[in-house]
Amino acid sequence: MAAAEAAARVHAALAGPGGPFAVVRAEDGPQAGSLMYADGPRTLREFMETTWAFGDRPFLIAGTAGERSYAYGEFFAAASALACRLSDAYGLRPGDRAVVAMRNRPEWQIAFWAAQLAGLVAVPLNDGWTEDEFTYALDDCGPRVLLVDGERLPPVADWARRAGARVIVFHGEGHPDADGVERYEDLPAPDPLAAPPDVEVRPEDDATIIYTSGATGRPKGAVATQLAQAGAARNSRFFEAAAALGRGVVPGQGPVPVTLLAFPFFHVAAFTGICAAMSSGGAVVPMSTWDADEALRLIRDHHVTQFSGPPATARGLLVAAARTGAGLEGLQMLDTGGAPPFDLVVRLAAGYGERIGLRNGYGVAETGGGVTAGFGAEYRFHPGSAGRPTPSTEVRVAGPAGDPLPDGETGELWLRGQALARGYWQDEEATAQAFTGGWFRTGDLAVIREGRVDAVGRVAGAATGAHGVRGE
């Protein structure tokens, strides 16, 4: 009970009237009736533009030999230059789709945020897909430009040629000779003082299409507006602030966070981690291929303070640390997603006491990433919980008819809030099935206890199936 009361106090301090994460209820627009943050950015372009002030602080630290790192100023200049090329040279306009398909290279983030600065709809695709899987998604979303690395060019090249789409290849070998294909490395060097293109990006405009895992059928493209994704970015910052307060640290004070990121960039859990770093001027060290010993080296060499990855990678990290005697001295947090990692709680307590915290949560493509999280003392007492929702997220456990159930009873988890997707791309039937009166029907069974959400299974025959942080 004491841990629950402490968590509630932290929430009230951050989200109460006048707090940095205070919310209001939207009166109109696509999120009408939902809670939304009273302050903060309303578009991803607005969110990104604030990062320019971090200047020479490290942002993207190359975790693989042969790749380069970017400070915030360099990153903003590179994204602005690419955004201008997409707008001016390619003639792309707000609403056009831009596919991003690469492994976890720093340039993935340049491509994604360039699309946002140009007002385009960014479509991150799974870098492990086959040519048939890529073709399905490309036919579905109809992009006008593909931003891919050299490994992804072969499975998308034929589609781009047939569709007349432009292609920019990052880290491509040689010089592509196909019409409409150019190498990113051959583009002019970014002007550090250049501005993004002069385009209007509105809160109600679409920002992203994120495809579900397809676990229950063909992948569906969850479409999120700029306002929704700005809310998702704000959710990320809330989790960081709440975790800091839970450790007795004033948010924004102490060392700048450095995150080792083992989630693939196309995954919504990675979006949560990236936006949390960008909100505070933190650095990110991305990993393309999981290797526990390499992770230990990166943590040591780059003074990593937070690890973010699936439970299996966190587990492997702790096993490798025990085998090699690595002390993980600077590490403060293991941030996982998926099935409750009960054994991680035991491993952390046995090896590190309470020095390294553990955070787990719930989020899917339709919610723009994590919308609940558990951490600190409360999570150690309730490791099976997905935690508490963000201030802008409402949760309901519903019966078969959609009626709210009281605490302690099991039903389908419904969610509503600023970060919610507006529906599925060109799929009215699936949208009508999953989105009801502003609520998203997750297809997951859950129980609410003392404000905490416990996901306990799947609804029989559920049609949703997003790739998210719930452990698919």
Explain the overall architecture.
The chain has 13 helices and 24 strands. The chain has 472 residues and is of the alpha/beta class. The protein folds into two domains: 269 residues, ANL, N-terminal domain (Rossmann fold, 3-Layer(aba) Sandwich); 134 residues, Rossmann fold (3-Layer(aba) Sandwich). It has a seven-stranded mixed beta sheet with strand order 13-12-14-15-16-17-18, with helices on both faces. Strands 6-5-7-8-9 form a five-stranded parallel beta sheet, with helices on both faces. Strands 19, 20, 22, 23 and 24 form a five-stranded antiparallel beta sheet that branches. Helix 1 crosses helix 7, helix 5 runs parallel beside helix 6 and helix 7 crosses helix 8. It is globular, with a radius of gyration of 21 Å. The chain starts with a helix and ends in a 14-residue tail after the last strand. The C terminus is likely disordered.
What's the short version?
33% of the residues lie in helices and 23% in strands. It contains 13 helices and 24 strands.
Structure characteristics:
seven-stranded mixed β-sheet; five-stranded parallel β-sheet; Rossmann fold; alpha/beta; single chain; 472 residues; globular; disordered C terminus
The CATH architecture of the largest domain: 3-Layer(aba) Sandwich
> Helical region count?
13
- CATH fold field value of the largest domain: Rossmann fold
**CA radius of gyration:** 21 Å
**Could you name the CATH class of the largest domain?**
Alpha Beta
Q: Spans of 5+ residues with little confidence (pLDDT < 50)?
A: 465-472
Strand content: 15-25%
Shape: globular
Helix content: 25-40%
